[in-house]
Amino acid sequence: MSVSLTASHTGPAKNMKVAQRLSRSRKRSDTVVKILCYAATAIGLLLLASILATLLIRGFSGIGLSVLTEVTKPPGSHGGLLNAIVGSLIQTVVGVAIGTPIGLLVGTYLAEYAHGSVLGNAVRFVSDVLLSAPSILIGLFIYQLIVAPFGGFSGVAGCMALAVIVIPIVVRTTEDMLSLIPTAMREAAVALGAPKWKMIVLICYRAAKDGIVTGILLALARVAGETAPLLFTSLGNLNWSLSLTKPMSSLPVTIYQYAGSAFDDWVQLAWVGALLITFGVLALNIVARVVLRGGK
Asked: What pTM was computed for the model?
């Protein structure tokens, strides 16, 4: 009788000790993971801060009125980056304007019409391949498609190369954001007699607006700093030119050419160009977020 009572008391005590050990083990694991997360965050912020600090230190000292009013000139001529800035704006805006509607429609097709279809899976696979493809391959593709057949580099070819980069980013973001929309919202719109296209435009797009705009901004930020595709398409131009049928200058290509130069004024302009691209993209993201919040 005493043996059975002793066993009945030691059982719960043993279970309690095991539970306490497991609890301590979980707490230790949680602490280790938390420390690793904090360390990774600190390293990331430190690297980002060092990059921004280097850009500010090396680039801010070279900013002046001539940078925004003078075109690129030979070494020692105290030129600026006006033609490169305008060329980048034109090619980036046109490339995003071409690629965004295509990516938006393809992403909508994959999310709303192509569930489990063979064509949908094929389109999704090709989009994922393009998303991870090196940009230099896209530049070579556009070179063979547009530059070589028409006998010359041009701004049109640069815009098309950037558009090809934009498309898979917008496709993936649009599909993911539309897939997060609850089915009940779609059913409610259809139950009220709305056709599917109107349900997508008025319900799904509005609900996924923030995510879709974020994807477009990500695409814009990526193409704004692309260099390799433009080397094979628009090439660059030291002179002032707004013609899309001729070689067109751009900030990334100018930075690439000037950064490895032996001339100090060109190297300084390269740092200024990198600073302008970085803060231009940052300002665009801030403005977009403010506008989105104000529209809610």
From this structure: 0.86
